[in-house]
Write a structure and sequence with these properties.
The chain is mostly helical. It has six helices and no strands. It binds zinc ion (ZN).
């Protein structure tokens, strides 16, 4: 039985429940969304994507890791910069939540049945298969 069959038939790999893995994939998706936010903000300004590190565009406050976690940090800070309290666009949490939900949803859909499978994670399944076999 391969990695993917194990995930969909009984329990996830390492004996962890299915929704542990969907949550894990969702968090990974939200992190991807967080990176997309950087791209969305910096690309039109022709700024580098990797440098300088995350900072508030208003007060230049350097954003530490705990203030830079997808979804969670925006909620903790109630959508405002920790230093100058300037509002942070809800687009940030929106993109993070959407990317996370799409990634998780695709895996869940695929478990539901043939339709889910059709629109599901053939590509994720393919990646898992090619790397774990
Ligand atoms: Zn600020």
């Amino acid at each position: 039985m391969n990695w993917e069959d194990e995930l969909y038939r009984h329990h996830g790999p390492l004996g962890l429940p299915f929704h542990f893995w969907t949550l894990f994939i969702g968090i990974f998706g939200a992190m991807t969304g967080s990176f997309l936010n950087v791209v969305i903000h910096r690309m039109p300004r022709e700024e580098s994507i990797v440098h300088p590190p995350s900072h508030c565009p208003t007060c230049n406050h350097r954003i530490p890791m705990w203030q830079n976690m997808p979804i969670f940090s925006w909620l903790m800070l109630r959508g405002r910069c920790a230093s100058c309290r300037t509002a942070i666009s809800p687009r940030y949490i929106g993109v993070e939540a959407l990317t996370g939900a799409v990634c998780r949803g695709v895996v869940v859909l695929r478990r539901i049945g043939p339709v889910g499978r059709r629109f599901g994670v053939h590509f994720v399944g393919g990646i898992c298969r090619s790397h774990l076999h």
